[in-house]
Design goal:
The complex is a heterodimer of chains A (about 120) and B (about 110). Chain A has about 120 residues and is mostly beta strands. Chain A is about 0% helix and about 50% strand. Chain A contains no helices and twelve strands. Classes of the chains: A mainly beta (about 120), B mainly beta (about 110).
Chain lengths: ~120, ~110
């Protein structure tokens, strides 16, 4: 079975500091996609970053970057220069390419608080 | 309107009521999804529609009935629900479900079943 595990239910960071959220996954597939989504108190799920498994280069999106370790099945999210607006629930998600109907499998989430 | 919209944003219903949730996407995507988000549980995929055909039904009880009249609209018809069905229901859309395309989510409908 394909699973996604986020081992940190809650984290906090000071404004302007850097924080890393952990995610591990389990699959026997070789071609898949990984995502980090952010869900602020408004409950709107917002894409933070996307990574294709066949790409060795880690994805980066402004202050957000990932450390993708395919052999270790690890996909951590680093947030640099944390801002108060980064306070949210962060979900790691996994998707295989075909015959799964676009099924996203989500982790339990990490609640991040950015403190002033 | 832009992105993915959902109505209503909040819904309270009794166990014998019949109601519908509506989702509309303005992104020109071909696939739409319903997810359920319960407290303390990961998001669960309920249904997937691609080009208006259902391609995934993730063992959802028959009291939830989806409808996709065209590629821009998706409904979830609810009847004789149980209190444990209270949750946030999220709609999403993507261009191609078989190509790992990013799914874009609506703001959700908060459902409370009394």
């Amino acid at each position: 079975a394909q699973t996604v595990t986020q081992s940190q239910p809650e984290m906090s960071v000071q404004e302007a500091e850097t924080v890393t959220l952990s995610c591990t996954y389990d699959t026997s597939e070789s071609n898949y996609y990984l995502f980090w989504y952010k869900q602020p108190p408004s409950r709107q799920m917002i894409l933070v970053i996307r990574q294709e498994a066949y790409k060795q280069q880690n994805a980066t999106e402004n202050r957000f970057s990932v450390n993708f370790q395919k052999a270790a099945k690890s996909f951590s999210l680093k947030i640099s220069d944390s801002q108060l607006g980064d306070t949210a629930m962060y979900f790691c998600a996994f998707m295989t390419s075909y015959n799964q109907g676009g099924k996203l499998i989500f982790g339990q989430g990490t609640e991040l608080s950015v403190k002033p | 309107e832009t992105g993915v919209t959902q109505t209503p944003r909040h819904l309270v219903m009794g166990m014998t009521n019949k109601k519908s949730l509506k989702c509309e996407q303005h992104l020109g995507h071909n696939a739409m999804y319903w997810y359920k988000q319960s407290a303390k549980k990961p998001l669960e995929l309920m249904f997937v529609y691609s080009l208006e055909e259902r391609v995934e039904n993730n063992s959802v009880p028959s009291r939830f009935s989806p409808e996709c009249p065209n590629s821009s609209h998706l409904f979830l018809h609810l009847h004789t629900l149980q209190p444990e069905d209270s949750a946030l229901y999220l709609c999403a859309s993507s261009q191609d479900p078989l190509a790992g395309d990013t799914q874009y989510f609506g703001p959700g409908t908060r459902l409370t079943v009394l």
